[in-house]
């Protein structure tokens, strides 16, 4: 029976980010959430457990305040959580997150069969962690997955690629990054939330890990996207309609 | 002093918000317009344990505290005040009274199905001639062999047409005054008990309200809740819980009014600028936000006292009085902010304003709350 690891990131819920009058971003009253596609990863792990048995470990790297995120994840069905926490982990880069996850999985999770990650996170959407983690662990990685199942010793997945759908298989252990189409994440019930904190949580600190590589990215600035409204009036005569269609074409609204 | 909710309470609020956006918002206009009870929605609420929140797990509930229940009622009411209220009266009063005063057998038979949401609870007290003046009630229950026989007419029973378990209040000894009323648990389809037509109301339209007529309705002695003569005292305990729920419903309505007012006033341009830039409008919104914060604190405090097992009767009345009047005051402003558009069907504020009115009336009118509060502080 498979041991499945579902990785998730506890991110700022973008719905709470406000736009200041001067175009700056106001983070003063934000709340956090499990990154959207990671909810799909957790849901899929729990679904696979439902049909194949085994167990699900929810794993996250974050700041110590992310305990709420750990409970949120556990309320969605995993059996236990692995919480890699440090106050310095608030601005990790994808390469660092992947290295930390790899370190923990290699050293502490003896036998795992499948790792599920969201295709990208709601905040950065760099799509790096899954692929890098697989590379560190030297296991196959299947990305853009909209359907997945375990069949004997292998994972079979449907990838949504530009030209259509690609069906691939890989030997276990393997890593799969999922798209939101893969399932509809549950809304945990009251009891699920209240019993989440009774599930086991393995907490790992920075000091328990191999030294972390330095940061490679530099944030130069951050501003809100600007939306300019353009108001142009068109008449109803044939010439005006042609002009209207032309305007839409120039703006690439139609082709 | 600690104003912080627990992580569980915060998560449950978020889950309820998501639930309401997904399942309630899309039907809120339709169930209001058609005055329809959304049975399919209540099925979903039951699956998420939302209909038995503050009832212990061993009795079919979720084992949450009362504050958690109140937060969920608030979030639900933010989307649909009728649905929030139905949950509140079902579990906050009906199931709660069986939990507090029922014997083990009654809990097994009636509380578990209620907490699991298999049927809805109703609280049957008001009569055509006895609203605020509950002592003017005339419904009687006479012991005959091993049965009580009930006769009389009740009115304004929420969940009347759709309920499964009714807590009915009737005189067993009228002469004994405040110690002469008793409460009975009567299941649906008991011969002699009949729900009337669903009332056509100004607001709270999807909550089902009707008369309940009792004509030689026999109910076995084992369905007496608590002691004979303890009915009125139990009803008052029910109101303490229920009023905290109505306060939460009002807070939800008020939050929705504020959400709508902020959104609309930033979008609507008149005289070349969003109307939110006009002080006349922005001050309305400032007052709304301030009263919302005050109402919410009063409400959470009442629920918190209940969870600390301290008396919370006065606080529940204060929370209910303040929150309901604030909801009414500010939903009128929310319509004002949206001008003619706010006056039309389809505008959320129009529904909020109609729904807000009931919070000043049921479970004790504002006048009744002032009587209770003044009686308490002038003692
Ligand atoms: C939608 C809806 C749902 C309801 N659900 C339920 C339910 O589930 N179960 C249930 O038992 N009841 C229910 N009720 C009944 C509700 O609690 C009563 O309507 C309420 O208690 C007021 O009673 P009344 O309507 O008879 O008004 P009255 O008591 O006739 O009051 C009329 C007016 O006089 C005022 N007034 C009365 N006496 C005094 C006084 N002494 N001093 C000053 N002012 C006074 C009142 O405040 C009010 O303004 C519901 C009512 C409605 C409308």
Q: Please, could you describe this protein's structure?
A:
- The complex is a heterodimer of chains A (255) and B (379).
- Chain A has 255 residues and is of the alpha/beta class.
- Chain A has one domain (3-208): 3-Layer(aba) Sandwich (Rossmann fold), CATH 3.40.50.
- Chain A is built from 6 helices and 13 strands.
- In chain A, α3 (94-108) packs parallel to α4.
- Chain B starts with 6 loop residues before the first helix and ends with a helix.
- Chain B has 11 helices and 10 strands.
- In chain B, β2 and β3 (147-158) form a beta hairpin.
- Chain B is globular, with a radius of gyration of 21 Å.
- Chain B has 3 domains: 7-120, Butyryl-Coa Dehydrogenase, subunit A, domain 1 (Orthogonal Bundle), CATH 1.10.540.10; 122-232, Butyryl-CoA Dehydrogenase, subunit A, domain 2 (Beta Barrel), CATH 2.40.110.10; 238-378, Up-down Bundle (Butyryl-CoA Dehydrogenase, subunit A, domain 3), CATH 1.20.140.
- The complex binds flavin-adenine dinucleotide.
- Flavin-adenine dinucleotide is lined by residues 89, 123-126, 131-132, 156-158, 201, 204, 209, 358, 361-365, 367-368 of chain B.
Total domain units of chain A: 1
Q: Which strand order spans the largest sheet of chain A, edge to edge or round the barrel?
A: 11-10-9-12-8-1-6-7-13
Q: Name the beta content range of chain B.
A: 5-15%
Can you give the mean pLDDT of chain A?
93
The 3D shape of chain B can be described as globular
Number of strands of chain B: 10
CATH superfamily of chain A: HUPs
- What amount of the residues of chain A lies in strands? 25-35%
Work out the largest interface and the residue count of each chain. Answer: A-B, 16 and 21 residues
* Overall average residue pLDDT of chain B: 97
- Give the CATH topology of the largest domain in chain B: Butyryl-CoA Dehydrogenase, subunit A, domain 3
Number of helices of chain B: 11
